[in-house]
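All the exercises in this workshop are built on plain-text protein records. An example says more than a description, so a record of this kind follows:
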Amino acid sequence: MLNEGYMKKTNRTITHICVLAFAAAAVLAAVSCKTAPEAPRGDGPAASEKQEQAAEAYTRAGFAENLKRLLEEKRFEEALASFRNVPEADASSFEFRMMKLSIMISAEKLAEAEELAGALAAEQPANTDVMYARAVIATAAGDMKGRTAHLEAVLKADPNHSQAMTGLALDLLGKKSYKRAKDLLVKAIASDPQNSDALLGLARVYYIQADLEKAGDTLNLALKKAPEDSILWAELARVKSETMDLPGAIDDIEKAIGIDSDIYGHWIDYGTYLISGSKKAEARTAFSRAIELKPAEYLPYIYRAGLNDDLGNEDEALSDYRKVTELYPQYFYAAESLGILLWGRGDYAGARAAFLLALEGNPKNVSYALMATLCSYRQEKEDEAKNFMGKYITTLDRNSTEYFLCRLFVDRAGDSEVLNRIMKEKNLNTRNRMLFYSAMYYDLFQNKSIAQKYFIEIVSLPAPNFFEFRLSQWELKRLESAADTNSSQSVQG
């Protein structure tokens, strides 16, 4: 349940609250100024003084309205720039500097924000708003010790500070201290029933405890208080997906995206729900959007590659798998998939490189070593194949089936022992996976008719769960096509 969006919300909590608080203050100031009695017309010192006051009030109202607009549009840099036009009397005030501090945090100007926060803390060391702001600065900077220290300072000054309790509780959730976290969250909600962050945290506790009903109820309660909170909708979608309410999950994540379309995690969740709903094209679009938001993250490329493969977009699938191997070479499944597609294209050099990369990530997977060896044989590089497999085979148990299977491609010792072991294998997936390599042995060195027979047996498996199944389908088609060609040529002759 703790996704990227949830963490984003956790880290921005103080910032969000500060900005909204000061925006509200600005609005109130503007309203107050606008509704003030109009300065009287006339001559004399009294009238002139009141007119000047009205002009000053109008200036503040304009600043407040402009600031509110910029904050609503998340134009934080421009909001900061607007402070340059504030008269010194206002600019130097504690309230205006607090407002500026909150916007600095939102603009991610953390060093400047901490400097200003330090100055404000020196002036008012007991001010919990300043302490709280310093906690979010520490969070954004990755200083979790500092975050904890500032939050604890807030609670020391104000034991009923709801947001500080929420922050510490979220930290405890990350440490799997669920009972302590729950106690703090319940206390935080009691202190401030409008605290949707605390309700979100409590919902997560229920989710972890597998009480999905309470998790859903808590999130719905939070949404009554904060209906425009995209994270709440995203978490409710996740709960519904767990209860097999897929249409509800899709509907809720779409609401989340409608509120905030720039959260990467929303698009990942959306894509996975669409896949579950067999909406592959739409899911592909969702993952493409996730990639736009975070092009250095490998996960959406994995999803999109699989979808592209399923949809017949082979070039795009190859591109995505290659990207994954660049971003996260340890993820051997991507290299495996890349090798499979390249084998299907007859690019055996590229396929070999991919399977060797997969083997680096998972050295115990004998299939990767065998595929790399087969790629060498398909390139007619027999010495390369034998040398590689000759070294790899020394890492295997000499009594294992895998050892005898690999030995076929070193000294061609015959497959009688291998076949005997294969036929005794009770797991059909394991049996047919090994049978693929026996078939390839016959295809390369012995009798293509026997190889074809084995491939037919493999592809007849009703529920395959091994990548060699797909290769068997391709190899069978290749042999059948070759047979048809030979037959046609014989007839013509």
About this structure: The chain has a mean pLDDT of 87. Residues 25 and 64 are 9 Å apart (CA to CA). The two ends are 68 Å apart (CA to CA).
